[in-house]
Automatic annotation (TrEMBL):
GO terms for molecular function: ATP binding; ligase activity; metal ion binding. It holds the Pfam family ATPgrasp_Ter. It comes from Cupriavidus metallidurans (strain ATCC 43123 / DSM 2839 / NBRC 102507 / CH34). InterPro entries: ATP-dep_AA_Ligase (IPR052032), ATP-grasp (IPR011761), ATP_grasp_subdomain_1 (IPR013815), HAD-like_sf (IPR036412). This is ATP-grasp domain-containing protein. Residues 108-289 form the ATP-grasp domain.
Length: 429
């Protein structure tokens, strides 16, 4: 399953419903070098995002996972796998070579170290930026401390303990607890990329200003300081890294950076780097193809804000889209971007796209002023006699119109999906 330079690289994202899976999808979906697949063990957002989607896989804890996953790789002729969860990456790392695929950043020893806080801190115990780890509650001399799960990520399960009683209660509530020093200062993430020659091609620190369920929703891009760069280079020197990876730092009471965790996977908010022109998942593909990389960033991008995107599945088979003109396709003389995006998507999916309107002026002229090509439409229907738009639809159509009475009439006559403009965004892939 080795890729040649003459065919697209077949890339599988697993599991594909998470935020970082969404980032890999967005980073690679338009690449000329990639044919993108998504797979998951649970029914999740991945089925909406990935055009080539496989669901219902066993979990990695299931006995049949290895054989099922191996068959999938062969059936799809997969070349490269992005694992989007630390435990999945840790599990696949020693198995990927036998499955005949490249696992991005899949060195087994490095994946195992990065997955476990205890192993990470032990690996770098001699570094002045490694946090102090306590062997027991009795070994703690100054409070408070932090109790965190050895296999945790994204700050999940982290507990502040102000005394031995709180520490023991926190330890009893989690598997494999780790006791570390309390770091009261600022927290940052540093996105990195290491190429096949072990060169640290990119190091990009960013803030974690607003975090939801461990995911950074607001991130400010920071200048790379010598201190942070030194930590990145030392991690890169000691671990076998290749591809996108990241680490998190937090300042101690004296303002010095200390390590929180290292991860060998793509982070969801690596989108901040892509927003400034550094596409880390695509760099992994290029590196796999043996190409030398140069990161060309845009210094004018300094802040990234994220929000939850909502998608829906339309359980209705249709072959035609009918769309109104006034205030649906064109608003205040300009094309409505999300309506246009859906129409282009529909054309790519093989649907017929039709314009139906009661427009009182020259339709061709209105379209031209809004810079909309008439060529996108299979037909243009202009109703001048006051008749019903429903008379022009087939039962295997959907209808987009901002005017409620029009939608109501069509829905009652034909029982087909009718959409207002605000609903269109839910169908855009």
């Amino acid at each position: 399953m080795n890729a040649s330079m003459n065919k697209k690289l077949k890339v599988l994202v697993f599991p594909c419903g998470s935020e970082n899976a969404a980032e890999i999808h967005q980073a690679l979906r338009y690449s000329l070098h990639v044919e993108l697949f998504g797979a998951s063990s649970v029914d999740d957002h991945g089925r909406f995002r990935f055009e080539r989607y496989v669901g219902g896989l066993p979990k990695i804890s299931d006995a049949e996972f290895d054989s099922t996953f191996s068959r999938l790789l062969v059936e799809l002729d997969i070349d490269v796998v992005f694992a989007t969860h630390d435990s999945v990456l840790d599990y696949l790392a020693p198995r990927a070579p036998g499955m005949g695929v490249t696992l991005i950043n899949g060195d087994p020893q490095t994946a195992a170290i990065a997955r476990r806080k205890s192993a990470t801190y032990a690996c770098f115990r001699d570094a002045d930026w490694a946090p102090h780890m306590f062997e027991s509650v009795e070994a703690v001399k100054a409070w408070p401390i932090i109790v965190k799960p050895d296999l945790g990520q994204g700050g999940q399960g982290v507990t502040l303990a102000n005394d031995p009683q709180q520490a023991r209660a926190a330890m009893d509530a989690m598997q494999f607890p780790v006791l570390v020093e309390y770091l009261p200062g600022e927290e940052i993430t540093v996105d990195c990329f290491t190429d096949r020659k072990r060169r640290l091609v990119w190091t990009g620190p960013r803030t974690r200003e607003r975090v939801r369920a461990g995911i950074t929703m607001r991130s400010r891009l920071l200048a790379l300081s010598p201190e942070i760069e030194g930590i990145a280079r030392e991690i890169n020197q000691r671990l076998q890294l290749r591809g996108p990876w990241f680490f998190q730092l937090k300042a101690d009471k004296d303002g010095r950076w200390k390590l929180l965790e290292i991860s060998c996977r793509v982070a969801g908010t690596m989108v901040a780097q892509r927003a400034r022109g550094v596409n880390l998942p695509l760099m992994a593909v290029q590196d796999h193809l043996g190409r030398d990389l140069v990161a060309l960033d845009n210094p004018h991008v300094n802040l990234v804000e994220r929000s939850i995107a909502t998608r829906t599945r339309l359980d209705f088979a249709y072959d035609s889209v009918f769309v109104d003109l006034d205030d649906t396709l064109v608003l205040n003389g300009h094309a409505v971007p999300q309506t246009m995006a859906f129409l282009y998507q529909s054309k790519a999916d093989g649907k017929k796209v039709n314009l139906i309107t009661r427009h009182a002026f020259d339709v061709a002229q209105t379209l031209e002023k809004a810079h909309i090509s008439r060529g996108i439409f299979d037909q243009i229907i202009v109703i001048t006699d006051g008749g019903s738009k429903a008379d022009h639809f087939s039962p295997d159509s959907i209808f987009i119109d901002n005017h409620f009475p029009e939608r109501l009439e069509v829905a009652r006559k034909l029982a087909i999906p009718v959409l207002d403009v605000d609903m269109v965004e839910f169908l855009i892939k």
